[in-house]
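1st attempt posting a full record on here, be nice pls
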Amino acid sequence: MVTKELFKKYKTAKAFANAKPEEFEQEIRSTGFFRNKTKSVLGMANALVDRHNGKVPDTMDELTPLPGVGRKTANVVLGNAFNKNEGVVVDTHVTRLSGLLGLTKHTDPVKIEQDLMKLVPQEDWTVFSHLLILHGRSVCIANRPKHEECVVCDLCPACPGSA
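the predicted structure (as tokens):
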């Protein structure tokens, strides 16, 4: 929700790196955890400028040392910006739905990712994450699922009348 305005104002990594933290905090306040996010975003921007000439790297090994960048964020960047399927994005929706559907018994995101990578063809890892996230946001909403709209209802133990 805030990125549209941020990218209008800060067009380069150097512009983000030069942002005033107090001002940036106010610009992203609505996202929650704005102080920590400010440290991560501005720290990441400084690292991009210092270590990568202001360019976003395209490998997991170069992305994950950046402030605020873990496997989830790196997988998002690699899959969407560089069309590289290095892993499966595991957010709260992917965690919840993969457990609900019996695709994993784990709760640790790294272990969930490993399980999903064994089940889903590598060329589909990015789109698979998008589909589960979209399904979790719009149909299989926690505490109020729309079973009548669910396309995988017959496979889901939580769906009334499923196998």
